[in-house]
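Mods, move this if it's the wrong board.
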Amino acid sequence: MKNFLLAPLLFFSSLLAAAELSVDGSAIQDAYASRPDHATISPQDSELSSTSLFERDLRYSLFVPSQAPKTGRYPLIVNLHAYLSSAPIQEIFASMNAEAERRGFIIVYPQARFASWNGGLCCGEAALRQSDDVQYIRDILEDVQKKYPVNSKRIYATGMSNGGFLTHRLGCEAADLFAAIAPVASVLGLQPAACHPQRDLPVLMIHGKLDPIVFYGGGVFNSVSKTVDFWAQANSCRSVVAQRSFSDATCYRGVDCQADTQLCVSDLGGHCWPGNPICPGSFGANPLDANPLIFNFFEQQSLRPK
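Not the wrong board. Structure tokens:
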């Protein structure tokens, strides 16, 4: 079984690598140089923290708002980079810091130990080694909480591509810690039968129908439909229906769910973070903007009892 899975894992890892390496940090930096939010909060405003905990090196970029939290404790978002990318590149690529400054969120950008995350079937060396990246993220959050006042009921996870695969896995294995997840350009990398969230978990998925890497209709990976159906079932939704339509985009929402379950799809979107002008496989402008969708969703969620 391992040999059967190894070939597609390596194949899709190579595709992801090609997509991510085609977008270097300087290109992303140039694309955002003229944006108002880039001018307001730049990557240089973040600190890079490196420490050792439980005999492991923890590396992450950290953005902390300039104003103290009104409630005494900060809400926090973990934002996970793509395969062969990095924490600093994801910080620029997602461009969340300006919105985090306005809304008072800490953003943690973890750096993968093997330039990849073990999201199950995806991706790279982390998946081949069966790296325990769920525990690694727990350790990073424990480290951050030692340094800053964090609202433990308002910790969230998001991520792009391979980072989105780990975001799904965090939903499966760390729902005791995260109040909600919002994976982007990714699907559940585990078989549904292997995912056992400890509680009902709010989920917002964002995907492009023309994604040339993580196919909307599935293949080696689960399809987007199968993934959202899994979360809808896990959250006891009666059904999933279209809620809002834009030009070339639709957001779906679960009906009568125990936890909010949503999917936003761009008909012409590729493999990207919507709102970013760099988008492999996309045709035309993407009507979705991931950041306000994610922040608005997270602001409505807090950790609920089992």
